[in-house]
Amino acid sequence: MKKLSKLSLMCVLFFGFFLLSTQARWHNHTKHSKHNHPHRISYISQPPSTSPGPTASYSPPPEEPKNPYNSTPGVFDVRSYGAVGDGQTDDTQALKMAWDTACQSESPAKILVPNHFTFMIQSTIFTGPCLSGLVLQVDGTIVPPDGPESWPKNNSRRQWLVFYRINEMSLQGGGVIDGRGDKWWHLPCKPHMGINGTTLPGPCDSPVAIRFFMSSNLTVQGLTIKNSPQFHFRFDGCRNVHVESISISAPARSPNTDGIHIQNTNDVKIYNSVISNGDDCVSIGSGCYDVDIRNITCGPGHGISIGSLGNHNSRACVKNITVRDSIIRVSDNGVRIKTWQGGSGAVSGVTFSNIHMDNVRNPIMIDQFYCPTKKCINQTAAVYVSDILYLGIKGTYDVRNAPMHFACSDSLPCTNLTLSDVELLPAVGDMMSDPYCWNAYGQLQTLTIPPVSCLLEGTPRSVLSDEIDHC
Ligand SMILES: *[C@@H]1O[C@H](CO)[C@@H](O)[C@H](O)[C@H]1NC(C)=O
Ligand SMILES: *[C@@H]1O[C@H](CO)[C@@H](O)[C@H](O)[C@H]1NC(C)=O
Ligand SMILES: *[C@@H]1O[C@H](CO)[C@@H](O)[C@H](O)[C@H]1NC(C)=O
Ligand SMILES: *[C@@H]1O[C@H](CO)[C@@H](O)[C@H](O)[C@H]1NC(C)=O
Ligand SMILES: *[C@@H]1O[C@H](CO)[C@@H](O)[C@H](O)[C@H]1NC(C)=O
Ligand SMILES: *[C@@H]1O[C@H](CO)[C@@H](O)[C@H](O)[C@H]1NC(C)=O
Ligand SMILES: *[C@@H]1O[C@H](CO)[C@@H](O)[C@H](O)[C@H]1NC(C)=O
Ligand SMILES: *[C@@H]1O[C@H](CO)[C@@H](O)[C@H](O)[C@H]1NC(C)=O
């Protein structure tokens, strides 16, 4: 095994040198770096014995370093593959080459996007499986082309950086991934960008900044991700995802800029992160289970959402979701479950615990009539919602809306909703709004503020039917 991996490392290095010698712009860059960044140079290709002696009256120019940036074995610096990092030059091929090389490494490999540089990367799919685990260490800044006009015509407009079929990868570092979303948000088709809050027709696709697809054992740690044209993160078909200590930000009025969207993904941990944006802080779509969210700060934005589920009469299953020890501030919603009429499947086993609300419009909400266009017809089928626990939800709400809103299906009521230690006060003044319930069954474990008297007791007959799909 040892021999093999040494051999492959040598191949990798050799391959690297070969590429470099064909890169004219590399040589220019090297000369500059000698003056500006001497600390980065390490003469991997130049044994110490060949150094010119200090007494020599004439020293031939030292051999040009072939690969000064890949000084540490297993570290693949994008500059070694020709990346310039001036924010203008297209560095896509360099990053892809670094990726492909690292991906072929049999021992754990790190791709380095170094500090103090800005790399412009086009829409790209980084594909696995790789021979070993990978770290993509982003210490510098990564940006896409600036807006729809500069986006190459043949590149996907729905995604920017895509990681596909990767097992064991860490996207980490102290750097910034800046989606430069501003020009996308102002496309006329975006909600509320027209005159008086209207939406105008026009091409509307906008790229998700970072998408993980069909991948597993992923960590995202430490980074700042901002101004995505659309969702900042999307995990789809993934398992074992750990997001830790990241910061996501976009303006409150940026449309559709969800912080982290997960779908068909399980074993998810989202911890110690701060998200402010123009849409959901975290959105949990169909097919997610075993999700644990802790110590996140959301807002401004639209809060934490499960859904929307059951769109176009689809079947949705979501279970075992916990959100705890978190803060939601200045948001349209706090913790929300939203389903379309006509869907099927179930949402069950959801716990919202120890969540502080600060001036939130709908702190607690279940909406089984979700319909952004307001043009949906009533249907009897519904995604069944049950076993939802609200524990220690405290803080203030915006009195324009009810602090608690449980709007459940006529045919398939929500059941076993539990409220415990809920205290929600108006953010301004002392006029309270009443909680709202429609076909919502459940119980109070403690008295709540405001008092809730609209929950129905027991279990309705309709949910005892064998025909209910519990997923
Ligand atoms: C190298 O640098 C010179 C001067 O800065 C410039 O004129 C030339 O175009 C550069 N060559 C490449 C390949 O970037
Ligand atoms: C897009 O077009 C350019 C130039 O025509 C080509 O080099 C590139 O490979 C194309 N990219 C894709 C993703 O098809
Ligand atoms: C926008 O709203 C204002 C005030 O409600 C109204 O006077 C104006 O005519 C509206 N503009 C359009 C284009 O609808
Ligand atoms: C993810 O990691 C676990 C534990 O290291 C491993 O058992 C599992 O096979 C990995 N997942 C995949 C899809 O390889
Ligand atoms: C919660 O997350 C913040 C970062 O948002 C971090 O500074 C803090 O230490 C975390 N608290 C705990 C108890 O881990
Ligand atoms: C629920 O998810 C957590 C992880 O968030 C996991 O530890 C636990 O075993 C799951 N519970 C069930 C009943 O599957
Ligand atoms: C749909 O059902 C709701 C709740 O029963 C009712 O308030 C609403 O008027 C209905 N809408 C239509 C279009 O029938
Ligand atoms: C009601 O939901 C709680 C979790 O919120 C669960 O522990 C309990 O078993 C459920 N009760 C029934 C009767 O299903």
TrEMBL record:
GO MF, one annotated term: polygalacturonase activity
Record localization: Secreted, Cell wall
Primary subcellular site in the record, as a coarse category: secreted
Entry EC number(s): 3.2.1.15
Signal peptide location: 1-24
Family note: Belongs to the glycosyl hydrolase 28 family.
Protein name: Putative polygalacturonase
UniProt organism field: Rosa chinensis (China rose)
